[in-house]
Structures are given as C-alpha cells and as structure tokens.
Automatic annotation (TrEMBL):
UniProt key word Iron-sulfur: no
Name of the molecule in the record: Chemotaxis protein MotB
Keywords: Coiled coil, Membrane
PANTHER family to which the protein is assigned, alphabetical: LIPOPROTEIN YIAD-RELATED, STATOR ELEMENT OF FLAGELLAR MOTOR COMPLEX
Alphabetized InterPro entries for the sequence: Bact_OuterMem_StrucFunc (IPR050330), OmpA-like (IPR006665), OmpA-like_sf (IPR036737)
Length: 221
C-alpha cells in the first residue's frame, strides 16, 4: 500500500512538473508574439517619421504634416483607382502630386473630358476643397511618343496642353478660383516609363495635378 502511494505521488509530481514546465513555454510564445507586433508597429511609425523628417529638411517651405495628411485622405478616397493603376499620389518639393492616367479623364484621341473624367475630377476636388482650399493648382499634360502619328495633332505640346487646359477650364466652371489655376503641356518629353512598351506608353499618357504649398496671397519666395 505504501509502495502504491509513493508511486502515485511520483506520477502526480511528474505530471505537475510537466505542466509547470509547459506554461512558461506558452507564456514565452505569447510574449514573443506581442513583442513582434509592437516591433512592426514601431517600424511603421518610424518610417512615417523618417518620411516627414526628410521632407521637412528638404522642403522647409512646405507644411509637411498638412501634405502627408492630405495624401492619406486622398489615398483612402481613391483607393479603388489607386489599386487599379489609374492614379498615383506622391508628396514632393512641389507639393502633393496627383497623377492620373489619361484614359480615366478623356475621350480617346481627344482633349474633351469624358463624363467619367468629369465625375472623377469632381471627386478629387471635393477632397481638395476641404484640405487645400487656398493652394495654387498646377495642371500638367503629358503624352507618349505616338500621339501625333495616331491623332494628327500639330505637336505633342499642343495635345498635352489642350488636355491640361480642359481640366483647368472644367475646374473653373465648377467654382475653383481661376487665380489658383494654371495649365502647361510637356508633350512626350517627361516620360514616366519607356515608350517601347504598351504599358509604358499608357503610363506616359497622363495628367498631373500639383497642389502647391503656395497659397493665394502668400507666395513663397
């Protein structure tokens, strides 16, 4: 009987010892997972801070926080089009640059805005009106290297400028102060990608809308 009791006690202690030994392992795994999550969050926050610091050092005239926040707002509002590759956003020394594929805005081969393009501009400037109500807006047109051969425009500059001007005129019609607006065309001479591929040419046919840090009545020297 005594032997049976001692044997049972030994089994009980061994079992408890195994349990006690297992709990720290589970606890360590949970602690490691929590630490990994904190590390990833810290990396993300550090990347954002680095981006703001770099911009601040190079762009002292730019309200960095305003433009970073503005870019975040646009990214959320235009998430589907960004994912589809129709629009791209970046903050540069010029301000917030919104690049739009021409097919999203215009009737093919034309400087006339499509109904879809007008609706898309309405969407962009409903966001811009709330976050950048006084900033200058520069609209730039760009083409690929085949616009003349296909559409018989006088020059790439004519075609790209006509498209930029169409955007500016539409914004004026929608109530944007014309003092804030300007248009320019760069033809095929500032490509984003190689014109040797169909996708490269698509990327080069674009409108760039630059929301400047300069504001009406507050020009930066």
């Amino acid at each position: 009987m005594k032997r049976l009791f001692l044997f049972s006690l030994a089994v009980f202690l061994a079992t408890c010892g195994g349990c006690a030994h297992g709990r720290p392992k589970q606890s360590q795994a949970q602690a490691y997972e929590a630490l990994a999550q904190k590390f990833e969050l810290a990396k993300k926050e550090n990347a954002e801070l680095k981006k703001e610091l770099t911009l601040y050092r190079n762009l002292k005239h730019l309200d960095v926080r305003q433009f970073v926040q503005g870019a975040d707002i646009f990214e959320k509002a235009l998430a589907d089009d960004i994912a589809a590759g129709n629009i791209w956003l970046r903050v540069s020394d010029r301000g917030l640059v919104i690049t739009i594929a021409s097919e999203k805005l215009f009737i093919s081969g034309s400087a006339s805005l499509s109904d879809e393009g007008k609706a898309f501009l309405d969407k962009i400037f409903s966001v811009a009106a709330g976050h950048f109500p006084e900033n200058y807006i520069y609209v730039e047109g760009h083409t690929d290297n085949q616009s003349l051969a296909v559409f018989e425009w006088k020059s790439d500059w004519d075609f790209s400028f006509a498209r930029a001007l169409a955007v500016v005129e539409y914004l004026k019609q929608k109530g944007v102060d014309p003092l804030r607006l300007s248009a320019s065309g760069f033809g095929q001479y500032r490509p984003r990608a190689s014109n040797e591929t169909k996708e490269g040419r698509r990327l080069n046919r674009r409108i760039e809308i630059i929301i400047s840090p300069q504001k009406v009545g507050h020009l930066v020297e």
